[in-house]
Specification:
mainly beta, Porin, 1 helix, 8% helix, globular
């Protein structure tokens, strides 16, 4: 066999075997947000989300998020929140997780274009009551960039990308100190009134630098009630 053909076959087999290790899935994320303004600087925030996986056929997780938001100036806000998560496990049981999150967001409008950057730092523990490793905290930082267009109409289109950096995860130490997940999002927000906002988006998530990377394709729907 010609050496060049043999080398091509070996390279092709390697690429196909690498691709086979990547799993693909589609799902739905449904979100309800509640914002309660206390004064010009402080707001209470709450989120309830439900997610489907395995091509919309199985519950992936649900969570409740409660927090407080502080906006000292127009271009900057900070939010501190706690999230209770119930996630479906392989054996069909539910594993519970607890997450603390600190968000720092910069937002600036240039004509009709709105640019935003959000830095999120999160600490999470999982399966506290069911695993010996439940009290091992995972730390991540997440960087989200958003571009939104203000059309002077109820509908505002936007695109966004988010990168996740693994600071430390005792269960996946080989990825510590690495960027290992990216999300790409395109969507529209429809502000029916000052109180009611509806959203629809499409999200693609890609993992890398992890033992079993996964690609997700998500349809998302949102409703926000502002009080």
């Amino acid at each position: 066999m010609n050496k060049k053909i043999f080398a091509l076959l070996i390279s092709t087999a390697f690429v196909l075997s690498s691709f086979a290790q990547i799993s693909h899935d589609a799902g739905l994320w449904a979100t309800f947000n509640l914002d309660k303004t206390l004064n010009k600087k402080f707001s209470l925030i709450a989120t309830q989300e439900f997610r489907l996986r395995e091509n919309f056929s199985r519950v992936n997780l649900f969570y409740t998020d409660l927090g407080v938001e502080y906006r000292p100036v127009k271009v900057f806000k900070a939010a501190l929140s706690y999230r209770f998560i119930g996630k479906s496990l392989i054996d069909d049981n539910i594993g519970f997780r607890h997450r603390l999150t600190l968000d720092l967001t910069l937002r600036k409008k240039f004509g009709k274009v709105i640019l935003a950057y959000r830095l999120r730092t999160q600490r999470e523990v999982r399966d506290v009551q069911t695993s010996e490793d439940g009290y091992l905290p995972e730390w991540y930082s997440r960087h989200k960039f958003t571009l939104k267009v203000d059309l002077d109409k109820p509908i505002q289109p936007y695109i966004a990308t988010e990168l996740r950096y693994q600071i430390v995860n005792p269960r996946m130490q080989e990825s510590d100190g690495l960027w290992h997940r990216a999300r790409y999002i395109a969507g529209i927000d429809y502000k029916k009134s000052d109180k009611h906002t509806f959203g629809l988006y499409y999200l693609m998530q890609r993992e890398f630098e992890v033992p079993t990377p996964q690609y997700l394709y998500i349809v998302g729907i949102e409703y926000t009630l502002s009080l």
